[in-house]
Amino acid sequence: MTDPTPQPRPDQSGDAAHVDLAPDSLVVAAGRPERVEEAPVNPPIVLSSTYRSVGPVQPGRRSYGRSENPSWEPFEEALGDLEHASLPALLFSSGMAAIDAALSLLPLGGTVVIPRHSYQGSLVAVHESESRGHLTVVEVDVADTDAVIAALPGAAMLWLESPTNPMMEIAEIAVLARAAHDAGALVVTDNTFCTPLLQRPLELGADVVVHSVTKYLAGHSDVVLGAVVTSDAELRARLLRTRTVRGAIAGSFEAWLALRGLRTLAVRLDRSEATARLLATRLAEHPAVSRVRYPGLPDDPGHARAAAQMDGFGSILAFEAAGGAQPAEELTERVRLWLPATSLGGVESLVERRRRHETEAPTVPPGLLRLSVGIENAEDLWADLVQALA
Ligand SMILES: *Cc1c(COP(=O)(O)O)cnc(C)c1O
Question: Is the dihedral of CA 316, 319, 325, 330 positive or negative?
Answer without folding.
Answer: negative
